[in-house]
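=== RUN LOG ===
request id: a7f3
mode: sequence -> structure
chains: 1
length: 545
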Amino acid sequence: FLVYSFSELEKYLPRELQSAAFKVSREGLGNKETVQRLNRFQVSDPHPERLDLTVFVGGPVWALEWCPLPDGATAHQYLALACHQGMDQQHVFNQMYAGAGLVQLWDMGGLDYRSRPEAGPASLVYGLGQEKGFVWQLKWCPAGAWEPPNTSRKAPFLQRLGLLAVAVSTGVVSIYSLPHPQALCSPCHPDTPGPYAIKVLTLKLGASKAPHHDKSGQVLSMDWLPEKPHNIMAIGFYDGTVGLWDLSSCSSLLRVCDPSNGLTLLPYRCFVAHDNAVRALCFCPASSQVMATGGNDRMVKLWDLKRLYQPINVQKRNLTTEVCWPLASPGTFHSQEISYASRGLTGAYYNDLGYRNARSVFITPRTGTVWSLSFSDWCNSLVTGDGLGEVIFALLPDFNCTNPSLRRTVERRFVRRFALSFSQSPEERPAEGPSTQTYREAVENYYLHFSDSNLQSFKNYKRRAPWKRMKQTEVKTDLDLDRMPLAALHKVRFNPNMSCHAWVASVGQAGLLRVHCLHNMSGSHINTQLSALPTEPGGQEEEEQ
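=== RESULT ===
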C-alpha cells in the first residue's frame, strides 16, 4: 500500500469534473432553491434545520457501505463507496474487466444521535487505488476490526479503522486493512509518499473453479459471517457458484503466496447454488450454517451449509437484486427487477422461509426496478432505492406476531411507508423530450429535482404531497427505457451504528450522494440504552488479520 501524489492518482479518479444540474426543495419550507452544480468531490453545506447534505463523488455508484463502530464509540462516521470512471460505461456480467479504479473513504463527521451533528461538511479523507477493475460490492467486517485512534502501534503498522472487502470485475475479492485517516498524518507516520504496512488478502476461486470455465466470472455478491469471530466469507459468482472462505485458515493447501498478488486464499467449500449468476446472498444472523441466495434463474433458495446437496426451501420469484436478513425475523427481504414481472407486481417484498408458512408480503410495490434495500434492526424499518429515483421508508410490523390469514392487505401488513427523497426530470423539459441515451445529452436537456419530505414528523402523512406522489408512482408511471436513467438510485444504506441509526445515505447514476436524518425515528428507549453505554469502547489492542 503506497501513498501517491495527486497527479499520480489521476488515472484512478473519476473523469467527470462537474455534476449534473440539480435543485433541492424541502417540504414545509417556503424558500425556493436555485439550480446548482457541484465540482468533483465537492460537498454542499448541510441544511441548518433538516441537516441533509449532497456530495458529488464523480461517477455512477454501485457500491456503498457505512463503516461499523462499536456501541458507545464517540467517533466520526465513515462511508466507503466506489464509482465508475465514466458516466456512460456499460458492463455485462459474462465478461471480465480490468483497469484502474478508486475506493473512496468519506468522513461524514460526528453524526452522534445524542447531540446535534457537526456543522462542518463531509470530506474525502483518502482513496484506495486499485487496478483490478471496477467495484461491484463493498463489505466491512461487521465487528471486531475497529481500533480506537489512540491505540499504540509499533511502526510501520497503523491504527485500524476496519477490514473492507472489495469485489471487483476481475473475479476476485480483496480484503484491505484500512487505517484511520489521522494515522496517516500523525508524527509517527509523516505525510510523505512511502510504503505503509497495510495487509491485503486476495480471495480467489482457484482450484475449485467450474469445470466448463477457466474462471467463474465476476463477483456479484458477498457477505461476512455475522457471528463472532466473523472469519467466514461467502462469495457468489456469475456462473452460479458460491464459495466459502475461512479467513483464519492456516492450511498450506489454501493459503498461497503469490509474488505478484501477495497472499491468496482459496475456498474450503464450493457448491452450485443457481443455474445462472448469484445476484444476492446473505447469512442468517442467528445461525452460521444457514444462508439465503437469489439468482438470475429467478430462484430464491435457503441453504443449510452442512447439507449442500439440496436446498431447504426454494421459491420462484422475479430477478433478485439484493437480499437482507433481519436479526429477529424468520424471513428475508428481497428487491426485484422489473424483468419477467407483471405490472404492479414488482418492488421489495418480505419472503417467509417456511417457519410460519406465510405468504410473501409486498412492502413497497414499485413500477420500476428496486436496485437496493437496507434494513435497520434499531428501527425495525426498511428503505429502498429504485430506478425512478425514489427512496421509500417503510415502518414494519413484527412479522412473528402478524396473522397471515387476514384478508385485507392493510390489516395484515400494518406497513407505514413514506417517501424520503425523489429525483425527477425537470419541470422545464421540452414538449417533445429528446431520447437522451448518453450522459452528456441528458445533462444538457434535463436537471435533477430532489424533493425531500419533512422527516421531523409523520403526522397526517397520508394527506401530504410525498405520500400522494409515491402512490402515483406505484402502478401508473410510464417508464421511458430509451432515456438515460439519470435519476436512478443504485444504493441506499441505513447507518448500522446504534448512536447514528437514524441516518440514511443514497446514491446512484448521477453520482450525487445524499445523506438524510430521520429525526422522527429517535425514541426514548434508544436514549435509555445509549445512556447505559460507556462513552468509549474498551479498546483492546487487536492483532492484524
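=== NOTES ===
The mean pLDDT is 80.
The CA atoms of residues 104 and 127 lie 5 Å apart.
=== END ===
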